Amino acid sequence: MQDAGNILEQMNDRSREVFRRVVEGYLETGGPIGSRTLTRSMNEKVSAATIRNVMQDLEYLGLLGSPHISAGRVPTQTGLRMFVDGLLEVTPPSDDDREKINATLGGNSDDVGTMLDRIGNALSGVTRGASLVLAPKHEAPIKHIEFVSLSAERALVVLVFGDGHVENRVFTPPPGQTPSSMREAANFLNALVEGKTLSDIRRDMRQQITARRQEIDVLAHALVESGLAVWSENTDEPDRLIVRGRSNLLEDQGEAEDLERIRVLFDDLERKRDIAEFLELTESGEGVRIFIGSENRLFSLSGSSLVVSPYMNADRKIIGAVGVIGPTRLNYGRIVPLVDYTAQLVGRMISDRTER
């Protein structure tokens, strides 16, 4: 088969129009498009037989396929890719869609996670797909650490960051801890961690503790090690990936095979822990990227499409991503600018908060 990038240029006007109308009809209805349907919408007056011949040629090129024994055709993954790259017409987000997404930024008192959750809900609502929002890591320097005893078998480690953000993590402390050992452990850690981020701590704290263990007693050292284990367990930060609108994917899925694909996608979304891989999808450059079917290595088994865009902080560093996932017949022309708009909005929101 010829390279898909060259096929579009080699097509005549009739073949290009037939191809475009088949894809647009499929994206709108989800079903195969027949020659008789096309005769009523073509710019030039041509017979159904002529259109069938053109469709057969496009099928030979690998751009169209026949899902059933009928005259109707649907685009293949290659065909969809060529359409998205060469023929897709995008429309700016409507005022109504922008207002629904903008409305999620109303509460300045909310933390970033809460706002991103609302943004995800709004994006899934306006696109009728499932939204994916990758929250940024919290990389502010740590200002203070405190250990709080809750019971003989439960304790709390409180992390206070320089930007005012506070994280509380419950863990099981080593046996025999006293108020004195907790204070000693906290003082020891505060002398080491002030001004460092969690990433810094995970990278070199264990070496520091080993080198200076003679400075604290056995009980306090055990508590420090236990607290370090709590931070290490959260390295992957699975809660950073916010998924909203799964139920939208079940709409209009009448075929058993479609429902099975959605079930596989749900399983993927529930199990997904390799968040870094999701972010890697966006790191080859700015702007929206579209992954169709098996091109989408994270969710390839479900035959879904992913439209995703990174967002950046004030230093133009990629810190997260926004996306919409759904069937391959997504309304790309509408969803691509919505994802782009949302990603830029999130980037501005994150930048404004860090500059306060």
Automatic annotation (TrEMBL):
Domain Heat-inducible transcription repressor HrcA C-terminal per the UniProt entry, residue ranges: 115-336
Keywords from the UniProt entry: Repressor, Stress response, Transcription, Transcription regulation
Family matches, as InterPro entries: GAF-like_dom_sf, HrcA, HrcA_C, WH-like_DNA-bd_sf, WH_DNA-bd_sf, WHTH_transcript_rep_HrcA_IDD
Keyword Ribonucleoprotein belongs to the record: no
One annotated GO biological process: negative regulation of DNA-templated transcription
UniProt keyword annotation of Repressor present: yes
Pfam families assigned: HrcA (PF01628)
Top-level taxonomic group: Bacteria
Gene Ontology terms, MF aspect: DNA binding
HAMAP family: HrcA
Role summary: Negative regulator of class I heat shock genes (grpE-dnaK-dnaJ and groELS operons). Prevents heat-shock induction of these operons.
PANTHER family, A to Z: HEAT-INDUCIBLE TRANSCRIPTION REPRESSOR HRCA
Protein name: Heat-inducible transcription repressor HrcA
Originating gene: hrcA
